[in-house]
Every structure is written in structure tokens, then in C-alpha cells.
Amino acid sequence: MAHVLVIDVGSSSVRAAICDGRAQILAETAESHAFTVAADGTSEADARALRRAVEGCVDRIVASAPPIDAVALATFVGNLLGVDAAHEPVTPVFTYADTRPAADVEALRSEVDVASLYQATGCPLHTAYHPARLRWYARSGRITPAMWIDVGTYLYRAWFGREVPCSLSVAAWGGLLDRGSRRWSAEWLHILGLAPKTLPPLAGAWHTERGLALAYAERWPALRDVPFFLALGDGLAAHVGSGAIAPRSTSLTVGTTAALRQMRVAETPPCPVPKGLWAYAVDETHELLGGATSEGGNAYAWACAHLRLDGEPLVFGEPFAHGLTVLPMFAGERSPGYRPDATATLHGLRLSTTPRDIVQALYESIALRLAQILDALGGTGALHAGGGALSASPAWAQMFADAMQTPVHLMGEEATVRGAAMLALEARGLGSLADLAPSASHRFAPRPEVAGVYRAAKERQIELYRRLYP
């Protein structure tokens, strides 16, 4: 039977897993990590520390692994790393959640045709994407990198000891890839004053690299000549791993952050991107259309850290009986409004408000925010849902079903690992996505009797947003 080594570099943990020919996890190991955050909007990671964590996981998993047929890598995307001519880091890894370039977003609005570039790249002008971050870094007066790359490309260049391209999948998440040509945007390069050589060459998502550098061939002899697929965006892997493989089927992923996605055939010329959404290339012929929030399980992590919850299972009351209205934007806003200056807001506190009321309101508020994204997508028949945060809370899955009045099929928490394995197996001719797709472990039906309550709460949330961010 075939076996795939999957490496998943997520926002809160790094893991390595051995998956079989059915994309089922046979063994795995993980190591937690956290972004460095600060009140000024900083959200970054140490590239060398991430590399050590990844390599430690690979060391442990390959020590007793069966013969490996392929290696798949999925990483959190929207990350940017400056390296020198020897491919060594000279900057931190800047993450999608870093909002320090907010002023540069506003400055660029007066210099560029925002709407045109939005449609050309599929990405709005926002701190989650590279254009504003590169402008912000350029004016900071720090060391000038020889090249800007992503975490996956950094790992592969270290392991293979040579130049390795960046996949279209990862490049698309940075806001610098032209949707039509599948090349770096010449317009953005001109605006930012970047030479093409400062960005890595591009290759299709199913491009592979073989032949580890000597040090790593000796460290991981079982992987010496195994094909390594280029890094995939973790959102693509999670979408596929949720079983949303039919045209326009919709995935809901709630991990550290949250997202709704639909896979579509890429049109020529590219189809318009609806307001509030993004479109990311998957390969030469497909793209993901959807929207993501900067909040998800991180809101619950915040509550656990600061609200002195007693550790007992959360039992929630009737929807919105707490009287709270929440904007859960702890790390700025992505979809649908893309306000990098937005912050979390809790409205309606009373002396009777309890920590559990606040947690329930946070959960409900994130479901309402994702409901707005589903509205922009035009709705769907069902949601293929996954992600660690959602799998850990059936009550939250029910909230999503109620908020969107759409059935939620919970597919398990390992969607990213499973999806990366599925894509690698299909690319190697060892299976098809249709045969490898998972079955739902639980199904949550929307409750019509609470539809009006959720609809009214969504309107209150939208009105609070409009008042604070006109």
C-alpha cells in the first residue's frame, strides 16, 4: 500500500503524519508554536525556530515509518520571509495577521487602481497580503533582503540545497499573482519597485523535487530520493480534505481562523470576484473562491486565557439571550469588509453578564460573520466542515448551521493533513479524490425556529460594524 508523509505547518502547531493509500492517518507527531504578537499589530514567527520544529517532527516520524511514496507539505499562507543570497533569513516570518502595514494600505489606495488590481490578483488591498507589507518594510530602513519567499520555499531550499520554486497555490495567497497569466503581477512589481529576481520562480502545484542535500539525505535516508510536492496553501488542503470536491461544493474550516471556500474552474478571462471575497489560484486550471476571517479558535483561546473559565464543558443557553453583540475581530478584519484597523468589540455588557455568556456570544458572532461570507458566495446546499476548533465543539457546529440555515456535515479535525495526502495520492496516480473523500462523522440540521433570531442578530452585528467603521 502507498504511504505519504504529510508535513503541516499551521498557525499554532507543526505536525508530521504518515497517511496510507486511503489518506487515513497511521501515525503522527506534533509540536506547538505561537506567533509573536504585540499591541502595535505585530504578528510574526521565527523562521529558524519553525524549521527546527518541522525538522524535529520529521525526525520522529521517519524513524519508524514504512517506505514513503511521496511527501506533501501544507503551510499557513499569507506569510512572507526575507532571505539573503544564501537563502538564510534576514527578517522574521511576517504573517497574514500582522496589521502594522495598515497605514500603507491607505497610502496605496491613493496611488493605484484598487478595483482593477483586486480583480487582477483576486486579493483586495489589505494587510493580510504582500503589497502593503512590502511597502511598509521598504520604508522601515532595515536590511534589504536578496529575495522574498514563503516558509515552504525556505524549508525546501534548505533541504535540497538549491533553488526551489514557489507553487502557484502559495503564491496566489500573497496578492502578487496575476490570475490571468499565473505569473507575478508586473503592475505590482512596478508600483513597489521590485525587480522580478526578488521573488522566487513559480511552478505548478504538482511539481516535485527529488534528491535531498547530503546532510539531509544522511539525516533522512528514507526520503533521499522520494518526490516532494511543492508547498500547498493549507486552505486548499483543508478544502479538499473536508470532502468538498464536487464543483462549487463549499467547505467551512474553523481552526485558529475560519474560512468558507468553493473550488471553481478558472475562466479566461478570469470571472469577477464578488465584493468581500477572494479568488486564489490552485493550479493552472482551478481556483478557490471564498472568504476568511482573522478569528476562529483564537477567540476561544483568548477567552480561556482571560475569562477564568472553570474547564467544565461549555453548555450554552438560548441563542442571543445574553443580549450581547460582538465584533470578534481580535486581529483586524479580513472578509467581508477588509478593515485592517478593526478591533474586537463587545457591546451590551451588564452586571448579570457571565464569562460563559461572553464565550457564547463570541462563538455566535463568528458564525454570523461567516454567514455574511456565505451570502456573498450565493449560498450552498451543504457545508463540508472541519478544523480542530469546530470538531471540538458540536455546539458551535450547530450555531453555524443555524446562522446560515444550511446543513453542516462535520468531516473531522484532520482535514488539512488528509487533504494534502489526497492531493499527493491523486497526483501520483495512486487514487482519485472522489474515492478518497471522507464521509461525515456528524450532521447538523438548521433549526428553522431560530432562523429569525439569528437573522436579527446578524443585522445588529452589521449595524454595530457600520457605526464603528462607516
TrEMBL record:
Name used for this protein in its record: Carbohydrate kinase
Ranges for domain Carbohydrate kinase FGGY C-terminal: 270-425
Homology family: Belongs to the FGGY kinase family.
A Pfam family it matches: FGGY_N
Domain Carbohydrate kinase FGGY N-terminal stretches: 4-241
UniProt superkingdom: Bacteria
Single Gene Ontology BP annotation: carbohydrate metabolic process
A GO term, aspect molecular function: kinase activity
Organism listed in the record: Polyangium fumosum
Record has Nucleotide-binding as a keyword: no
UniProt keyword annotations, A-Z: Kinase, Transferase
Entry annotated with the keyword Kinase: yes
Residues of the signal peptide: none
Organism lineage: Bacteria, Pseudomonadati, Myxococcota, Polyangia, Polyangiales
